TrEMBL record:
This is GH3 auxin-responsive promoter. Residues 330-396 form the GH3 middle domain. InterPro entries: GH3, GH3_C, GH3_M. GO terms for cellular component: cytoplasm. It holds the Pfam family GH3. Residues 431-512 form the GH3 C-terminal domain. GO terms for molecular function: acid-amino acid ligase activity.
Amino acid sequence: MNLFAQVSHQALALVCRKADQRFKNQRKRLEQVQRKKLGKILKQLHLTKTQQRIKNYESFAAQLPLTRYSDWKTRIEQMRQGNQGLSRSKLVRYQPTSGSSESIKFIPYYQDFLNELDAAIGPWLSSMYRLHPKLKQGSHYWSISWLPESQRHLLTDANLNDDSVLLDWGKRILSQYTQAVPSDVAFADSADDALFATLCYLVADAHLSMLSVWSPTFALQLLDNMPMWGSDIVQVLTTGSWGKRQHSLAEVKAPKARSRARVLERLLAKPLMDWQALWPDLCLVSCWDTAGAKAWAQQLQTRLPFAGFEGKGLWATEGVVTIPYDGHYPLAYQSHFYEFENLTTGKIVPSWELQLGDEVSPILTTGSGLVRYCMDDHLVVSEFYGSLPCFTFKGRRFGVDLVGEKLDPSSALSTLHSVAQTVQHCKPVSLLAIDTEGQAKPYYLAVFEGAMQNQPCATLIDNHLKQNFHYELARNLGQLAPAQVVCVDDGWQYYKQLAMHSGMIEGNIKPEPLKKIHMNALNSAQVPAAL
């Protein structure tokens, strides 16, 4: 690794130090920091005259309702047409995502909001450098925000999807000299070519010290593609040209590293890939490691046992809730204003009133202009760091999320009914998310009631589900196998059988349009397995 990159690491750690010290020094003053944060956010928002008289949290909670994206959708669409924004802060971009009942959402990223994210990024990076000092001696791969292929036209807008704007200008400049893969790979014509280019750059880098992705299935997909693409990667690194992929990757400079091509050739000749020989400096792998990602994260750790491992905090397009920090996962209390719905009592409480063991769902008020925004994640308070609650992610409250696809019951119901109308005498029962627990790629199985000869087409199910932003992306990246269909004589009996094999009591089973089922329950019920 060149000297300039090492100096950049040192400088990056230095510019993160102030936010890190503030995070650590104020960790016992949660209520004070949060009340001040709420006041600062409210001063920047375009509020009604009545709302402008809000002076404290108590009046804020009493006067403003809980919201979801549907409450903001019309206003944001009007903003995109040039109408008044939600905040007085400078609008930087709109970030596309999906979830809730929307197939695609646009979250306004104001400068104030980016500053809030930066207040979480600084302590997080400082903690990583502190726990893994060898990170300063190598380059890093941070997976970028991919867009599904049907949404690639959005990249023509320079105001969209540049991850570097999440950092302030100083960190942005310094991080460019420490990255293993250029962000330009997102401009490839297809997700497949973007993955190929990413792998070429990773192989070309002899000093890769960190692999940071969101879903562990994404990293596993990269590793699994090595045997299939190995000879093509060798060719690219030898010639410095994309060859047959040149048109798709026209916006990306091809890496040239002949010595690394020879290393890869030698490793590919062995029965098993020696990942440590390929990346001897790799000291940290970071990805989701809880709820549905747990089995895949364990599989990734098994593939790369020589590297340290760290789970992600809870980040979403709408904001950050927790960060990894010195071995804990505390609330990112310096970023947004946080409330929580107690899932046992239904009561809404501020962060400083949480108790150990509380099962809650976060509610965010942020510099994006979204106020009392329900995240619909299921968390449990696992410990405290100072006065800061730390959380464990248990899953989504209303939807299903196997690899980050974020499907919800309304999307499932719409898909089932639409596809059922394409054939005669076919009744929709449920869309099952098949958790393969790392044994194979997860997938969705649509269950219908009717004669087998009237079974709907699985491709129709898959295409309809691809209207969901993150489902399409997961399919493009190969993280999900294609959706499947089964048609049975007695849909309710079949559904009950699956639920009971999953451990549910018969009297407690109710029909749901979207439900996660484990592979073992599926096999026990003799439903067709994944292709």
